[in-house]
């Protein structure tokens, strides 16, 4: 295969530039060339109208900074399925033919993966380099580690303001169906509570945990200082297991309804309980914090960093993984393998899965959650049982890096 | 003076721990001791009820990390004027007497400064160490430089996500009446437009500037990539000079009404114009970005980092300045000077102003704005005239550090 | 088991505080308590002389910041084998007995692991939580990911100064026998060459790679700007496979001789070749950089960040992994398993290896190196063959997080 | 003036790209154009041989990232005075004539400033935008604030490793004659001792300060943890006022002899005293740290970050200041003012000094040092007297931003 198009799609995150560089450099090593198809599926659909495509020469690859998050190739909100043009696949094929592109490397999440399955069925050879900040594919996917590090840093930073005002703070992060980044970012930063879609949240349990811990900290501090930090995924469910969906919103391009602000919801739930709890005033008085009519209960605040958790820099792991799955995608494509998702390269093997299988949603393992509940983090339920069987390993074991 | 209380108050920010350390260490050097009055005016009002106060010994000073933003002493939303207790000043004096505190060092902004004027009039000796992230006092005040650096970093980081999706992005930051941090953070990060309360914003002007620059970037990019970054202060005014106040909100403890979300407002103003502009589709088509019904105009998004711009770390300058005004506050208090605001220490002089004068609001100088308009930044008006007279300096000149 | 001592030992790095917090919190969840044995094996040897030990209560655990690198428990250069006291094991046992400590959790690298084997043979129950920044144990070990991120950031930062002066720059990092962190940090930051102990370095090959790439960049730059970045591990070998050891140095506590400065060595090797190469002046002239007697060849510089790559913050992954292996260490110890190294917790299993096996040195896989050689990075040899067999995966796969 | 050349020279640092962008954008606003003269004086000397120069169009200015430290224009080690060509000024003039450059904006330090004086005397119109990381000009100069922030961050980070091993650590930074960055970075990071060229260092005084503070911290820590952090400028002098020069080194292009490693020197001085002090073993025993033959005295280590303190990112202030002095340089040049150094823009005035006067070295004010000695920082002498006269200010005062 001599000429390959690269597309990145979906939400942006860390590691995407690593995928592009890895694919393009590996192609060059095999005498092939990669070309950028700009702005995701918008560019793919409009390919036929382009005068020229940017070739990823040694020089041009050099100019891409893999340490920067986001994608040099660009994304758009266009999903192939949603394009109403009945001739869209013909138009796409005509575009590929115009530039003699023999295959595609597509980096994206589950929506992109399903597009890839479509394209493959329409006879277009494609390999999928997994990307989703949410980490809810079966494989690891670029972006998650960068985001988890950013979430952790933000929580850590927010502790200074929370402690100064003795506030309870909820940081709302992405995670519509799976809470991997809230979970791992929260653990990393020492959050007191982590609320994820996988575990319906009983706010009475969070409240009780918060009240004990918050006032203990304040009373044990010689300057009467304390806080309670919550990390909450946008897609949380209440104790009855219902999503906190904003019913008034219209579905997006991918058919998803907007969720209600999880941070605000947490704030309201806790404030309501603080106001209704007659013992809080007593605690505030003991702490010297109570002032009638002005400072009777602690404040609860939400922070929603939004795009800030997905931008800026790529973590070292995401660049490494990105370069490997990008390279691997070329190697597989070059060997005629299509419709698959690269899982990684190790021990001289390019590991991959069928894309249909790879994009099945993967949720946070509640066994793992129980390990952290035992360590004192509240997940909005009564702590699970730590069910850990020792397992002896021998020989060469799989590991990060 | 042998025993002094330290209070920090108002919004938290960088440099406050420097103030506390500087004051306490300078007191120790003069054989005096500082004590922490916890949680701002809540602690001052309730002082009488405390069993003990934390003394800032060598050990305890050591334990305060001046590199962390926020305040070891703590803040609260309590403002002395708002406390309804008619005996509040007697109660405060009784508290001070209980612990034999002869004077107060208060670090805060204009509201704290006015409390300090009150307290002075009630016979309590106080010196003011200026703090406001907003930089709208007459003197420099701790917190501004830290915040400006954080704003700049956030804008820089956001460029990766904005460019990836070819989005126009507005970062909303604090600044109710004065736009110093939006201005300086925006300049530092190379924002394309900066909207501040001092300059009523004509969105037609912003829109024209945006459209030219945004599409120029995309067409000049070999991967059709571009963005347009806006930094907007919360307290912006529209072209007729009216604040974007949320009328439905109730006034806070300091009598301020909540402002409408400036980021959202900017987003709406620009999106409205993009939708109404018949030439945009043509530009989108030329860029290969147009897809009927899905991607007809560029997206405009807002990010509101909130507390994230005021937390985390203190900049080096804020720690240096904080330690100097903290030290200076003790020196002045120890010499019997009260009711004043420290402006800095240099050349062997502790410089100060009457607090009444120091807390007069200082706005962004529109002469300085014109310098950046000439450099291509849009401030929502037609560029001002660069009116710069050369001025020859000789001898020892004032400078940062 | 009710009372357990925690020891951290060897070089410090990220994730250690996670280990301590994870172990102590998991112990509390089982009704047991952990105690800090201060300063590594110095504290263990002197335990008998302590009046008290710090108990890791809920409060005290709270006070440990897992986001900070390094260890709250402290380290020292003491290795039990090197202590000349013939009664040392009796003394250690007496110390453990004095405080009724029934077992030890020890976090350290290969040297600590071998001490653990010793202690186990002397009847002291211990579990090993793997730590080594160098990543040269069989399992993943806390510290590596934090260090790799720091190396990557430093290389990225150094590009600004290198490009400004058109310098070739070598960043020297730790890695006496294994080059994992140089390798992964270099890949992450887009280093042009990476020199690791596993691959004897032929400087003629590096030189040729550098010359081509460096001058290509400069000539392709419209401001005649270029650089070439090298990451080099301290323990590199020359083309004949000999270590660059400083023969004049005396062995350290662990019997290791000091290695010669790898950064300086690289600098000398490249400068020597630049001086001897008659075509360099021509290149310099073409670039407009040549000035007789002053600027005839490009400069090569070395930077040795030393401790800076191991301090500061822990990466999110290191905290997560640390908390898990700390927890796992308690769980195993509590089940009577001793003399083992925790490899991780996943899927409800605490996975472990015999410590003797776990501390066997693991080197960089040269198959993986070949993947990056194909992408254009020079490792001081002719590029290896990319020998990658596709491997289809199904079902639940192992992954980071 | 319609065509202007921009040169940056000397050591690189933060803010330089701000200067370039500010100058070029302000020129454009006046209908003039700036051109990059690549690689400092090497490019100026070789200008005659260039085929073309890069014009700073709107597009090209856009491509310069002011947040990155270093200079897009490039530097070199070439100093005009050192070029042995007797016709060098004619050659330079011919180069300027070839490209019709009517004036130069030069950003550099004292050496660049003196070149500028030379060039002016040879009839070339130039304005100087002050740059020196060392901050030893009369005006503020870009780079200092960025460097001070980096030094502070490094010291802060190093505390984790120092505390873990109970080490005394010395961070060596630049500062041959003036210690501004060591001073301000050290204050910002809470260094225990700061050694600067302005104050000859009595190591007996440092030692006594260290011993008291180091062991106090360890004994007051419940985990026997402590450190002592030193920031030392490369150009320190010993108690007799002699520089620690490496006599064996040959003078550099600017006639300076290499200084001995200040970090290593500090390490040796303190270690020597620790070894000779019979009471140290007693302290080590009390702390439970003593092990015969292995751990008898605390370790002292030096870290030399070198280029790491001058690279990476520019602080917000440096970008703001850089853009202002760059703009100001154009404005002055355009008004026919030459041979001067821009000091800043404020209140509608472009302030400047004669370059001859501006490049006179400015040292750390020992009055300011005394303020920090009173706060407990040791500067290698007996604490100075705090000589602070209160000074009342009124009206509009000068301040940062």
Briefly say what this structure is.
The structure is a homotetramer of 401-residue chains. Chain A is 38% helix and 15% strand.
Supply the key terms.
homotetramer, 401 residues, alpha/beta, seven-stranded mixed β-sheet
Model description:
- The structure is a homotetramer of 401-residue chains.
- In chain A, helix 1 links the parallel strand 1 and strand 2.
- The first copy, chain A, has 401 residues and is α/β, with parallel strands linked by helices.
- Chain A has a seven-stranded mixed sheet, sandwiched between helices. In chain A, strands 7-8-6-9 form a four-stranded parallel sheet, sandwiched between helices.
- Chain A starts with a strand and ends in a 9-residue tail after the last strand.
- The first copy, chain A, is 38% helix and 15% strand.
- The mean pLDDT of chain A is 95.
- Strand 12 of chain B pairs parallel with strand 11 of chain D, so a sheet runs across the interface.
Show the helix and strand layout.
The structure is a homotetramer of 401-residue chains.
Chain A: E1 3-8, H1 16-29, E2 33-36, H2 40-45, E3 54-55, H3 58-62, H4 88-98, E4 103-108, H5 110-121, E5 126-130, H6 144-164, E6 168-173, H7 180-189, E7 193-195, H8 203-220, E8 228-233, H9 262-276, H10 280-286, E9 300-303, H11 316-334, E10 340-346, E11 349-354, H12 355-358, H13 366-374, E12 389-392
Parallel strand pairs in A: 1-2, 1-4, 4-5, 5-10, 6-8, 6-9, 7-8
Antiparallel strand pairs in A: 2-3, 10-11
